[in-house]
Amino acid sequence: MSLFARVAHRIPSPSSRSVIRAFSSTPRARSDHLFVHRDTTYNNSKIPFEYTRENLKRAQEIISRYPPQYKKAAVIPLLDLGQRQNKGWTSISVMNYVAKLLELPPMRVYEVATFYTMFNREPIGTNFVQVCTTTPCMLQGSTEILNTVTEHLGGLHPGETTKDGKFTVVEVECQGACSNAPMMAVNDDFYEDLTPESTRKILDAFAAGNKPKPGPQSGRHTSENSAGLTALTSKPYGPGDHCLPEFS
């Protein structure tokens, strides 16, 4: 039997293949969508943008933290400030305004805004739901949490916004609360130790215009062991304990 025949013989038939969930269910974004700007009716350089009086004062305070020759280091917090004012997304006008404020070539700001995924390049809903599906969360049931979110919001797919504009859902990688998995972030807050029931309650609260208490939803305070204290159960020794006599 030839090598090709042996390899072909080992390939399972379509009917025998098991269905495997993809690593990500979020629609793939083409690189030109991520890094290339194309004018639209809602995102073009002719749409004016400038900070409010309060945000301009805040921006000037941020810039003052850096030496004058290094004020370009303020580009990330200033873009974040602009995104928050611009209803959660960073338009080309926001980027151009920050570039002008920092006396930078616009391209230097575009480079930052297209590199960091924290800057949303398209409009988002009032409540930005980011469901973590990386390994620790997946082992704790994040697939069920993601399905709960999308189904509860009317069959939404990751990357989409509800018709009423209240929710945008995305699938993300590690949000840094692995010991409290599964979890999701809604706007600036983490919601941890999730179950399908607690997830639906959180979404209903946001839909009603309320803000549920962030953090673990299981009753624990932070990330303490559910089995109780298992470390540091004895009095720690003080200075000089367990030292050789000559060092006491």
UniProtKB/TrEMBL annotation:
[2Fe-2S] cluster binds at C132, C137, C174, C178. GO terms for molecular function: 2 iron, 2 sulfur cluster binding; metal ion binding; NADH dehydrogenase (ubiquinone) activity; oxidoreductase activity. Its cofactor is [2Fe-2S] cluster. Residues 207-248 are annotated as: Disordered. The keyword Translocase applies. Residues 224-233 have a biased composition (Polar residues). Signal peptide: none annotated. The keyword Iron-sulfur applies. One of its GO terms (biological process) is mitochondrial electron transport, NADH to ubiquinone. GO terms for cellular component: catalytic complex; membrane protein complex; mitochondrial inner membrane. Coiled coil: none annotated. PROSITE patterns: COMPLEX1_24K (PS01099). Pfam families: 2Fe-2S_thioredx. Binds 1 [2Fe-2S] cluster. Keywords: 2Fe-2S, Iron, Iron-sulfur, Metal-binding, NAD, Translocase. PANTHER family: NADH DEHYDROGENASE [UBIQUINONE] FLAVOPROTEIN 2, MITOCHONDRIAL, NADH DEHYDROGENASE UBIQUINONE FLAVOPROTEIN 2, MITOCHONDRIAL. NCBIfam families: nuoE_fam. Belongs to the complex I 24 kDa subunit family. This is Uncharacterized protein.
